[in-house]
Amino acid sequence: MTDPLLRVEHLTMRFGGLVAVDDLEFEAAPGEITAIIGPNGAGKTTVFNCLTGFYPPTVGRLTLSNPRKGRFLLEQMDGDRIAREAGVARTFQNIRLFSRMSVLENLMVAQHTELMRASVFSIAGLLGLPSFTRAERQAIELSRYWLHRMRLEDRAEWEAGNLPYGAQRRLEIARAMCTKPALLCLDEPAAGLNPRESAELNEILLDIRRDHGVGILLIEHDMSVVMGISDHIVVLDYGRKIADGAPEAIRNDPAVIRAYLGTDEEEELPEEVAQDLPRGMQ
Amino acid sequence: MAAHPEPAPRIDVVAALKEAGLAALVALGLAIPLVGFQTVERIDGLGIDTRFGWVAVAVAAVFAGRLLLIFVQGSRHWGSRPKRRFVRLGENTKSHLRIVGMIGLAFGLAMPLLPFADRYYVDLGTTVLIYVMLGWGLNIVVGLAGLLDLGYVAFYAIGAYSFALFAIHFDVSFWAALPVAGILAAFLGVLLGFPVLRLRGDYLAIVTLGFGEIIRIILLNWYDFTGGPNGLSGIPRPSFFGLEFSRGEGGFAATFGLDYSPMHRLIFLYYVILVLALITNLFTLRIRRLPVGRAWEALREDEIACRALGINPTITKLSAFAIGAMFGGFAGAFFATRQGFISPESFTFLESALILAVVVLGGMGSQTGVVIAALFLVLLPEFARELAQFRMLLFGGAMVLIMIWRPRGLLAHREPTVRLSDGPPAAEQSA
After folding, report:
1. Which of A46, A205, B245, B264 has the fewest CB atoms within 10 Å around its CB?
2. Contact B89/A158, CB-based, under 8 Å?
3. Superfamily of domain A20-70+83-87+181-231+241-256, CATH level 4
C-alpha cells in the first residue's frame, strides 16, 4: 500500500489545562475526501490549525507525503512554509478574503510563491523581463480557469468583499486551489449556504478530487455534504476520536449517535431513531 | 433635492434654539482665551489687551451658523443618501484621475518657468515636492502594507545626516552620496523592523514613534559626531554635472553664457526633487503590480490568510519598511543639500505627523491623493500667514472637515493591479 497523503499520530493540543485534542490518530488517503465531524467544541478546527501551522501541537507527528515534493513533518514547520513548501492549502470558517482587492487579485496573491520566484527579488519584475511576463500570464490563465470553474468569471474585477456570500465561499476555495496544493483543508465550506448552493459545492469538491488528484480534508456540520461526498469520516468528541470509517459505518455507529444526541451511556437508542439521525444532525 | 412624498418633519424651534445656545456657549469658552486676550508690547514690558467685541462676534456667528445648520438639515431627510452602487473597481474615476495627473505633471514641469514664479514660489514648490516625495515613500509603508509608522521622520533624518556627514568629512558629492543615504536609511529600517514588525496596529505605531524620538535625541546628544543642537552647516550644494552654481569663472552661469542669478540653483533644486519624487512615484506604481506589491496589500487586508497562502509576513513587511525608509533617506539627503544646514530641529515628531497626514488625507494608497494633500497641507499654512496665530486653528479645522466629509481620504478609490484582459473593459455590471 502507498503512503497516506496525511498521517496524524498522537496529536495532542493543550491550552493550559484544557485538552482540546487528545491523542488523535487518523490518516487521509491521496485523492480521497476525508471528513472530520463532531459536535461543537470537539476540537475539529484545532486539528486544522495544527495541520496548517497556526498552532504548534503540544505532542504529535503530522506527516504529509506530497507526491510531487516529498515528505514533510508539519509539526516542525511554520504556517507559511507549510503552505509554500508542503502544499497544504486551507479555507477559514469565517471567510478571510482580501476584501478590498479584486476577485482576480485574490487569486493572484495565492500564486505569490511562483510569481515571486519568477520576479527574482522583484528585479526581473521591475525591469519587465520576458521570463516574468510569461509567468504572470500563466498565473492569469490559472486564475481564469478557476474563475470559470467557480462561475466567477464575469465578476473578476469586483471587490471581493462585495460578492454575495456563496460566491465568497467559492472564491476562497478557488484561492486555496491556486496555490496548487496536495491537501486542501476546508473549514465548514457549506456554512451559510442554501441547499442549492451546497449541492453545487458537492459537485465542485468532487470535481476537484477527480480532476486535480487533490486530497480534501473537510470539517462540516452539513450532513448532506458529509454523507454525500466523503470517502472516509473521522468523528471527534471532546478532542478524542470516537469513530473512523466509511460513511455507511459512521451513520450507524452507536458511539457517534450518543455523541450527537448526548444520551446516557446505558440507554440504547431505538433502531428507527438511529436510522433517522443523519438527516436530523444538520 | 428630490421632492419627498412624506411631509417634512416639523422643526422644534425651542430645541433648535437650545442646541444653538449650547454651541454658542462652547464657542464662548473657546473664544475668551483664544480671541479675547491679546498680548501687546508696552513701554514697561508685555501687557494684555482685551478684545471682547471680537468674542461677541464669534459667539454670535456660531449661534447663527448652528441655527442655520439645524434648519437646513431639518428640511432634508437623513438617510436619503443614494446607496453605494456596486461598480467595477476603478471604472468611473480612472480616466478623470489620469487627466488630473497629466495636468499636474505638466504644471509641475513648467512651474519654475512661468512668469509669476519668483524666488518665493520656486522655493515653496520645492517644499511641496519634498512632502510629496515623503508622502509617496510613506504611502508604501502605510498605504500599501498597512503598517502605521509614526516615526518616518527618523529615516528622513538618517538620510539627511548621512549625506551631510559624508559630504563634510569625505568630500563626497551629492550624487555619489545620494544612494548611500538611501541604503543607510533602508538598512536602519530593516534593523528597526526586524524586532518590531510582529507588533500590529497601535503597538507598531507606538514603537515607531519611539524610534523617531530616539533618533532625534541621539542626533541632539552625540555632540562630537552630529554637532548636537548646533547641527551641521556647510553642507555642499549639488552641482549640475560638476558645474557649481557660483558666480564667476567655471560656474554654471558663466559656462552657459548666462548672467549669474541665484535663481538658477533654486530652479535646479526644484527639478532635482521633481525627478526624485517622480522616480518614487513610478517605482511605487510599478511595484504595486508586482507580486511583492500585491502581497503588501494582501497583508494589509488579512495577515492570517496571507500565511495560509504561503506568504512570509515578516520578510514581506520588512521589504515594505525598507523601501519606504529608502525613499525617506533620499528625500533627507535632498533636504540637507537644499538647506545647506541641518539640525535635529527639523526632524521632530510634528514632521512625522505631517507626512502621515499627507498620506491619510490623500487617501491611503492613492498616489494622486498624496499630491493634493501635500499641496493642501503645505500651502494652506503658507497662504494663511496673514492670519498669524490663527493659521494653525484654520489648519486643524480644515483637517477635521476633511475627515468628516471624506473619512477615507480625498481620493479613496483603488485601482486593481491586474485585469483579466488588457483589452477594453467589458460592459458595466449591475449588482
Report:
1. B264
2. yes
3. P-loop containing nucleotide triphosphate hydrolases (3.40.50.300)
